[in-house]
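Issue 218. Parser rejects a valid record. Input:
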Amino acid sequence: MILISNTIRFNQSFEDFTQNFKNKYSAFGMEDAFIIPKDVLSRIGKGKFKDEALSKYESEEMKSILEAKISELLIQRETYKKGEGVYSINFLGEEIEIDPRPTGHNDNDHLIWKLYKLIGIIDSCLQENRPVHLSITDDNN
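Output the parser choked on:
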């Protein structure tokens, strides 16, 4: 599991972490490892780790990777009219309607939504001059 958050996760219980509304996080499967800059994995030098603080440069690099992936996914999708379960996001100055439900109209909308939310976490950390925390673990304990 890949966990990216705005705070240290593993110094508290899972319940305490998820119930604190100041804590923002996003979890991904290992199939989404493309979101992690290769330089970060080289620097850390191990396959599993918890609460590694990313530098400002590494956070900005991750954000660029996420934006490029969203742009790629948007090219492949069909546009459709707003309906139930559809949200509007503002991505790179363009308003886009997506259906983030896993069973929505476009298969990739759920991933686009997750990546978009992660960009928001990274942006807030950069604005507050706080590190983004990265963990790669077998579970959430």
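Fixed in the parser; the record now loads. The chain has a mean pLDDT of 89.
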